[in-house]
C-alpha cells in the first residue's frame, strides 16, 4: 500500500470513527438541529390567546414550525404565571410542582423517537417554547380555541382541564353594584322568572301542569304565538293563570307592517289583555334583525309601528310589558331596529344551540357557548333595560347527520341554566322552547328536536339546574332597590393590565370619552384622565367571525376617579 493511500485510509477511518462517535454520543442534538432548521418559523396567528376563558393580548406573536406551536417565554410567564430560573447555560421553567430544565437549549434525556421537541427556539434574542414541552412538562394544554379556522390559540391550565366540559372557559366577569335603581314593570331583583313553551309538546299532551310536574317546578310564565289580526288568546291566558303563571304573547305581523294600524282590532286586543290584570310580556314583531320575517329590513317603518303599538298598550293595558326581542345573530342589524328607551320595557333575545347551522354538515356549530351567544345583546342593553331570553333550545337530534346528540343537549342546557343567575343578574326571564321541530315545524324547518320531556337525561339536566331559588315560580311582590349589573367577554389582559371595551366605561360607569390620536381622554364628573388604549380582535360566539375590542385600562381609571372596587375569585366587583 502506498504512503498516500495509507494516509488517506487513516484519515477516512478517523473521520468515520468521529462521526460514529458523535452519533452515538449526541444523536438527539444532531436530529434536533436538523429538525429545527428544516424550515423557518411561521407566524400569522391572532394577537391573543384565550387562557382559562379570558382573552390575553400577546406581547409577541404565536409561531408555528414543523407542526408545533411556539409561544414566547415572556408571554407564557405573563399569562400563566409560570416561574423561570436561569443560571449560565441552564434554564428551568416551573409551574407549581412541575418543571422542565433546558441545558444549552435542550431538555436532557429527551426522546426524539417519540417525536418530542427537545429544544426551544431563539428568535431575535427571545426564547420561544414549543407546545409539546408546555403540555408534557408543565401540564398546560395548548391548542386552537375553536379550530384552526380562527387562528386563535387557547391555553388551559391543569386546574381548568380538571373541570367538566361545561365548566370550562367561563372567563372573568365585571360586576357593578348600584343602589336605588328604578325597576321596570314587574321586574324581579332576586332571580329569573322561569318560563316555557309547551303548546306543541304532544309527549305531555301540551299540558303546562304536566310540564310543571315532570320538571319538578312551577313555571312563572308560558308563551304562545299569535298572528297579527287574530284575537287576544283569552282562554289560553286563563289556563296559564290557572297553572300558576302569567302569559307571554309573541305577536307577529306576518302579513307585513302595513296592517298594523290604530284601529278597532288593535284597541280590542289591548283591552282584552288589560282585563286580565296580570303581567303580560308582549313580544311584538320579534327577530326583526334577521332576514326570515315579513317585517325584516324595514327599520324605520318597524320603529314607527312599534311606537304606535306601545302607545295603545300604555293607554289600554298598563299591565302589558313591551318586550323588544331580537335573534342572537346577525348582530350588525340589531341596533337599527331599537325604538328607544322610553318605548321599551324589556330587551329580549332568542338563542339556540344547534349542532349544525342551516342544515349544512360543513357548518358544524357544536362549539358555540349559549352564554357567549347572549353576551352581545346583554352587554349592549343590560345597562338600561332588564333582559329576557325569549326562547332557548338545544338540539338533541338533527336530520343533518341523522344522529342523536343527547350529551350535547345536556351540556348546553346545563351550562345555560347553571351559570345564568350568577353571571347575568340582569336577565329576568328565560323560556325553554320544548318542541320537537321534526314533527311540528313548517316544511323546510323540520331539522332539530329541542324537546326535553322525551329523554330522561335531558329532562334531568333541565330539572336539576332549575331547582335553585334563583329561578322564580311567581311574581316578586317587593323587589329590592339595589341592583347588580355585569359585563362579560369584551375584556382582555395585556402586559399585566385589565382592559375593557370602552362601551363598559361609557354605559355602565357613566363616563365619556374623547379620542386624541394615540390616547383617550376619559371624563367623569368634570374631571378628566388621559389613557393609552389597546385593541384586540377576538372570536365572536359563532361563525368564526372576529370582533374588535377597543380596550382601555380599567383599574387605572377606577383608581384615578376614586371608585371602590375589589377582586373576588377572579371577578372584578365595582361599587358605584
Number of strands: 35
- Return the average pLDDT rounded to an integer: 91
What is the helix content? 25-40%
What is the strand content? 25-35%
The helix-and-strand class reads alpha/beta
The helix tally amounts to 15
Distance between the termini: 98 Å
Oligomer classification: single chain
Domain GH26: 160-462
Organism: Cytobacillus firmus
Active site: 287 (proton donor), 391 (nucleophile)
InterPro entries: GH, GH26_dom, Glyco_hydro_26
What's the SSE blueprint?
Elements: H1 3-25, H2 27-36, E1 48-51, E2 54-57, E3 63-65, E4 68-72, H3 73-80, E5 83-87, E6 90-95, E7 98-103, E8 106-107, E9 121-123, E10 126-130, H4 131-138, E11 141-144, E12 153-156, H5 158-161, E13 173-178, E14 192-197, H6 208-215, E15 221-227, H7 234-242, E16 246-252, H8 264-274, E17 280-284, H9 299-316, E18 320-327, E19 346-353, H10 370-381, E20 387-394, E21 397-398, E22 403-404, H11 406-423, E23 427-433, H12 437-440, E24 448-449, H13 456-465, E25 471-472, E26 483-488, E27 491-494, E28 497-501, H14 502-508, E29 512-516, E30 519-524, E31 527-531, E32 534-539, E33 546-553, H15 554-560, E34 564-568, E35 571-575
Parallel strand pairs: 1-12, 2-27, 13-35, 14-15, 14-23, 14-25, 15-16, 16-17, 17-18, 18-19, 19-20, 20-23
Antiparallel strand pairs: 1-2, 3-4, 4-10, 5-6, 6-7, 7-8, 9-10, 11-12, 13-26, 21-22, 21-24, 27-28, 28-33, 29-30, 30-31, 32-33, 34-35
Domain GH26: 160-462
InterPro entries: GH (IPR017853), GH26_dom (IPR022790), Glyco_hydro_26 (IPR000805)
Pfam families: Glyco_hydro_26
Explain this structure to me?
By secondary structure, the chain is of the alpha/beta class. 27% of the residues lie in helices and 31% in strands. The strands form 7 sheets. Strands 11-12-1-2-27-28-33-32 form an 8-stranded mixed beta sheet. Strands 14-15-16-17-18-19-20-23 form an 8-stranded parallel beta barrel, surrounded by 4 helices. The longest helix is centred in the N-terminal third of the chain and has 23 residues, at 3-25. The protein is globular, with a radius of gyration of 30 Å.
Amino acid at each position: 500500500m502506498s504512503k498516500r493511500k495509507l494516509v488517506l485510509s487513516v484519515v477516512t477511518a478517523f473521520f468515520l470513527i468521529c462521526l460514529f462517535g458523535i452519533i452515538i454520543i449526541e444523536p438527539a442534538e444532531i436530529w434536533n438541529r436538523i429538525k429545527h432548521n428544516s424550515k423557518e418559523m411561521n407566524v400569522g396567528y391572532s394577537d391573543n390567546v384565550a387562557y382559562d376563558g379570558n382573552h390575553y393580548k400577546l406581547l409577541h406573536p404565536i409561531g408555528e414550525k414543523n407542526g408545533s406551536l411556539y409561544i414566547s417565554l415572556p408571554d407564557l410567564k405573563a399569562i400563566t404565571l409560570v416561574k423561570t430560573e436561569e443560571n449560565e447555560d441552564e434554564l428551568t421553567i416551573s409551574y407549581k410542582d412541575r418543571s422542565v430544565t433546558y441545558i444549552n437549549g435542550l431538555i436532557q434525556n429527551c426522546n426524539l423517537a417519540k417525536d418530542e421537541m427537545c429544544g426551544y427556539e431563539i428568535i431575535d434574542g427571545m426564547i420561544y417554547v414549543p407546545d409539546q414541552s408546555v403540555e408534557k412538562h408543565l401540564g398546560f394544554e395548548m391548542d386552537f380555541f375553536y379550530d384552526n379556522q380562527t387562528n386563535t390559540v387557547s391555553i388551559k391550565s391543569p386546574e381548568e382541564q380538571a373541570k367538566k366540559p361545561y365548566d370550562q372557559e367561563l372567563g372573568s366577569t365585571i360586576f357593578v353594584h348600584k343602589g336605588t335603581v328604578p325597576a321596570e314593570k314587574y321586574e324581579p331583583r332576586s332571580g329569573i322568572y322561569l318560563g316555557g313553551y309547551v303548546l306543541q309538546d304532544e309527549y305531555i299532551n301540551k299540558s303546562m301542569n304536566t310540564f310543571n310536574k315532570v320538571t319538578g317546578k312551577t313555571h312563572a310564565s308560558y308563551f304562545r304565538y299569535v298572528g297579527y289580526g287574530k284575537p287576544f288568546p283569552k282562554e289560553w291566558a286563563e289556563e296559564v293563570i290557572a297553572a300558576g303563571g302569567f302569559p307571554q304573547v309573541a305577536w307577529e305581523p306576518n302579513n307585513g307592517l302595513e296592517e298594523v294600524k290604530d284601529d278597532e282590532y288593535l284597541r280590542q286586543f289591548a283591552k282584552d289583555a288589560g282585563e286580565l290584570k296580570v303581567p303580560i310580556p308582549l313580544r311584538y314583531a320579534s327577530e326583526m334583525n334577521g332576514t326570515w320575517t315579513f317585517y325584516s329590513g324595514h327599520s324605520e317603518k318597524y320603529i314607527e309601528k312599534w311606537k304606535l303599538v306601545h302607545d295603545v298598550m300604555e293607554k289600554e293595558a298598563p299591565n302589558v310589558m313591551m318586550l323588544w326581542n331580537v335573534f342572537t345573530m346577525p348582530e350588525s342589524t340589531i341596533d337599527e331596529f331599537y325604538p328607544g328607551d322610553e318605548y321599551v320595557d324589556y330587551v329580549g333575545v332568542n338563542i339556540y344551540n344547534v349542532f349544525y347551522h342551516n342544515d349544512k354538515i360543513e357548518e358544524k356549530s357544536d362549539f358555540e357557548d349559549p352564554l357567549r351567544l347572549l353576551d352581545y345583546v346583554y352587554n349592549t342593553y343590560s345597562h338600561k333595560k332588564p333582559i329576557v331570553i325569549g326562547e332557548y333550545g338545544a338540539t338533541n337530534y338533527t336530520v343533518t347527520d341523522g344522529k342523536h346528540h343527547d350529551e350535547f343537549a345536556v351540556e348546553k342546557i346545563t351550562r345555560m341554566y347553571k351559570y345564568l343567575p350568577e353571571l347575568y343578574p340582569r336577565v329576568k326571564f328565560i323560556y325553554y322552547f320544548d318542541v320537537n321541530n321534526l314533527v311540528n315545524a313548517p316544511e323546510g324547518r323540520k331539522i332539530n328536536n329541542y324537546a326535553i320531556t322525551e329523554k330522561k337525561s335531558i329532562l334531568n339536566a333541565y330539572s336539576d339546574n332549575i331547582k335553585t331559588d334563583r329561578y322564580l315560580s311567581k311574581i316578586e311582590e317587593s323587589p329590592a332597590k339595589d341592583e347588580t349589573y355585569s359585563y362579560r367577554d369584551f375584556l382582555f389582559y395585556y402586559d399585566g393590565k385589565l382592559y375593557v371595551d370602552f362601551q363598559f366605561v361609557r354605559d355602565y360607569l357613566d363616563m365619556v370619552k374623547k379620542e386624541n390620536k394615540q390616547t383617550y381622554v376619559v371624563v367623569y364628573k368634570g374631571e378628566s384622565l388621559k389613557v393609552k388604549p389597546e385593541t384586540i380582535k377576538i372570536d365572536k360566539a359563532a361563525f368564526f367571525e372576529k370582533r374588535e375590542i377597543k380596550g382601555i385600562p380599567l383599574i387605572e381609571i377606577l383608581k384615578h376617579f376614586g371608585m371602590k372596587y375589589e377582586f373576588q375569585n377572579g371577578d372584578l366587583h365595582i361599587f358605584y
